[in-house]
């Protein structure tokens, strides 16, 4: 016969429960990119001809096209360019490039973090599959109760970088307009550089050489 009282047995069971903490959710670190990324973009700097014309913004290069307006978003406190906004065909594409590990990707993890953050703020978040891979469609309240704002978050993992984009305006809901913005996104070139960087660090952006800040469309963020 066991000499263990019910109280002792209860304490032992409680101790056993404390030793078995819930496992952390597994993070998908696989790269997320179109199968033809190397030939159809978005490109790594090593994958495009050196003589092809681009607007050089440092960590990102933009292929010029008629009707495309470029604006640089600047963090006034840090005095640094933090994003590139491209206005085209009644749509807006805002892009940022980040350093990433060589063999693993960031987009799956980043996409989950964005969904959790915006969902906690009251936005409606839907996970969808697009031409670039997994993306988020976010619906949030506008300046009044009747207004609904739509934004699509897209991302592509490349060689040691992540290119992330936010699609707004007409392309957030119109399939034809979205296809034009996806084409614009795929024409971008990421310049990661050879220097070691921790994962998720924003690649440095700059005002194009030969242009004053006003001419480059710089806007304080």
UniProtKB/TrEMBL annotation:
<dbReference type="Pfam" id="PF12502">
    <property type="entry name" value="DUF3710"/>
</dbReference>
<dbReference type="InterPro" id="IPR022183">
    <property type="entry name" value="DUF3710"/>
</dbReference>
<protein>
    <submittedName>
        <fullName>DUF3710 domain-containing protein</fullName>
    </submittedName>
</protein>
<feature type="compositionally biased region" description="Polar residues">
    <location>
        <begin position="1"/>
        <end position="11"/>
    </location>
</feature>
<feature type="compositionally biased region" description="Basic and acidic residues">
    <location>
        <begin position="12"/>
        <end position="39"/>
    </location>
</feature>
<feature type="region of interest" description="Disordered">
    <location>
        <begin position="1"/>
        <end position="46"/>
    </location>
</feature>
């Amino acid at each position: 016969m066991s000499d263990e009282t019910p109280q002792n047995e209860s304490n032992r069971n409680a101790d056993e429960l404390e030793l078995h903490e819930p496992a952390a959710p597994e993070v998908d670190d696989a790269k997320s990119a179109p199968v033809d990324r190397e030939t159809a973009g978005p490109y790594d700097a090593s994958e495009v001809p050196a003589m092809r014309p681009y607007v050089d913004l440092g960590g990102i290069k933009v292929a010029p096209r008629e009707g495309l307006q470029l604006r640089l978003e600047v963090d006034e406190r840090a005095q640094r360019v933090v994003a590139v906004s491209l206005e085209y065909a009644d749509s807006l594409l805002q892009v940022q490039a980040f350093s990433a590990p060589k063999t693993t990707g960031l987009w799956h993890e980043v996409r989950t973090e964005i969904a959790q953050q915006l969902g906690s703020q009251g936005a409606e978040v839907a996970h969808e599959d697009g031409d670039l891979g997994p993306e988020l469609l976010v619906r949030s309240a506008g300046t009044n109760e009747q207004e609904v704002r739509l934004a699509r978050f897209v991302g592509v993992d490349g060689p040691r970088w992540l290119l992330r984009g936010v699609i707004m305006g007409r392309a957030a809901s119109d399939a034809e307009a979205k296809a034009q913005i996806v084409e614009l996104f795929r024409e971008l070139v990421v310049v990661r550089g050879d220097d070691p960087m921790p994962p998720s660090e924003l690649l440095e952006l700059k005002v194009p050489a030969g242009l004053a800040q006003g001419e480059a469309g710089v806007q304080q963020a």
